[in-house]
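SAMPLE LOG
Freezer: B-3
Tube label: C17
Construct: single chain, 220 aa
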Amino acid sequence: MPHHPVIAIDGPAASGKSSVAKALARRLGVVFVNTGAMYRAVTWLAVRNGVNVHDEAAVLALWLAATVEYGVADHQSTLRVNGEDLTPHLGSAEVNANVSAIAALPAVREELVARQRDYALSRPLVMEGRDIGTVVFPDTPYKFYIDASLEVRSRRRAAQGLHDDLATRDRLDASRAASPLRIADGAEVIDSSELSIEGVVDAIVERLAHRGYAPTFIRP
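STRUCTURE (predicted):
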């Protein structure tokens, strides 16, 4: 189905893509969709209910049986599961340790990708994740891949009080059979290692202008 313009922001964990995507959406006056939060919500629900995170059928059945509300508030995507805002739980050690396993389940990805596409039916978006430009919206002309060195990403993670093994996560995300992390065809790669969030946003806005993206949306 036809959809509104989507800016796809992909990249590995701690590359800064979430912060960049959020700031970019704010700059452009469009909605920011955090797809990683969706996979983390499924992970939290599975862990909380003692479901094996490698059991595709059980995880999907648990998710489909839940009351899930996908919405938008303050120009950002929202997600409530069984009436609860899961935001305080999504960065927990248990979720960090298991989210790559959940994200590797094809049936779970298929369900969430369908919901992610729904957002673009009614509004322009900046959407971040690991397969936005390759799978969710492969036809969008606005694709970016935000990267940074493993050392820089590890420091950023530590500054957040998190100590998950990024090298292992990179390997799992890049080698999974379902929608592996890779640079989408036509995507512009931006290394954020030495750039501020606003510096990356400035670079993206400049490149969007060259690609003819709705300049009337761009605000200083």
